[in-house]
Amino acid sequence: MSKILSGKKGIISGALNSESIAWKVAERCVAEGAQIVLTNAPVAMRMGEINALAEKCNAPVIGADATSMEDLENLFTKSMDHFGGKLDFVLHSIGMSVNVRKGKPYTDINHEWMQKTFDISAISFHKMMQTIWKLDAINDWGSVLALSYIAAQRVFPDYSEMAESKALLESFARSFGYHLGTAKHVRVNTLSQSPTMTTAGQGVKGFHDFFNYADKMSPLGNAPAEDCANYCVALFSDYTRYVTMQNLYHDGGFSTMGMNPALIQ
Ligand SMILES: NC(=O)c1ccc[n+]([C@@H]2O[C@H](COP(=O)([O-])OP(=O)(O)OC[C@H]3O[C@@H](n4cnc5c(N)ncnc54)[C@H](O)[C@@H]3O)[C@@H](O)[C@H]2O)c1
Question: What would the 3-class secondary structure string for the chain be?
Fold first, then answer.
């Protein structure tokens, strides 16, 4: 099999453990010839699992709280030092809802926690792109990608404030996609993924029932994390150079379905 990311260099955020979507993306990128830097929040790095991935991928790990501009500047500067030049791709695979985690219902939300959720799950994407912009950290025809979910468009009650986070995330992709596209020929997209059994996914109430529901509703079934990783690789490769400012569904057809007889007994 030819290696479609040969010579490409990128940053991959969000690999917490081997279930993480970003973990699979890191493995696939390296298998396709890319060199990568791994990053996560310092608190997640203390859990230590990322070191096993780093060894496997021959990649340095540079800690960064994605809500901190200082941490992000350090991450992009050190990554460019490591590579001896600019990046070709960046993956934002970061999400966390304080209200969901603490079991607060949507109708009685703590708005300070909501701000924190937006900062971690969405504004961090703008912060990453602003850092890329300021440091001129990405090569022409580079690719920036964030992971999203269809709750940005449709109502999934237990997804709570993460729905608005994803709507904001997708909007940042369009708005910054204009600037990075015009100035640098850099593309920016969001990939809207099926429910996936990860730490973040399973934090949502009723996730297992919902996972099964989506699996039955989708003609192809839920898209596994490994296939999500393959799609990410395609979006980092030169085969998708003119795809930008899009929210791309990777969901086995879920987003187009209205009713599936498989769900009606
Ligand atoms: N699992 C699903 O069902 C699903 C579906 C669609 C989209 N997504 C999205 O995929 C992305 C990755 O999630 P996942 O499902 O692989 O779960 P995960 O829990 O493995 O990954 C979430 C990551 O966010 C990181 N993170 C949290 N706060 C951070 C901060 N302040 N700075 C830097 N990193 C921070 C965590 O350490 C973790 O590595 C998220 O954006 C999530 O919303 C997940």
Answer: CCCCCCCCEEEEECCCCCCCHHHHHHHHHHHCCCEEEEECCHHHHCCCCHHHHHHHHCCCECCCCCCCHHHHHHHHHHHHHHHCCCEEEEEECCCCCHHHHCCCCHHHCCHHHHHHHHHHHHHHHHHHHHHHHHHCCEEEEEEEEEEECHHHCCCCHHHCCHHHHHHHHHHHHHHHHHHHHHHHCCEEEEEEECCCCCHHHHCCCCHHHHHHHHHHHCCCCCCCHHHHHHHHHHHHCHHHCCCCCCEEEECCCHHHCCCCHHHCC
Number of domains into which the chain is organized: 1
Question: Which range of residues forms the domain containing residue 71?
Answer: 9-252
Distance in Å, CA 244 to ligand 1 centroid = 22
pTM for the structure as a whole: 0.98
Q: Give nearest CA residue, ligand 1 atom 29.
A: 41
- Residue 80 CB less than 6 A away from ligand 1: no
Is residue 168 included in any domain, yes or no? yes
For residue 184, how far is its CA from the centre of ligand 1 (angstroms)? 28
232 CB near ligand 1 (under 6 Å):
no
pLDDT by residue (tens digit) across 113-142? 999 999 999 999 999 999 999 999 999 999
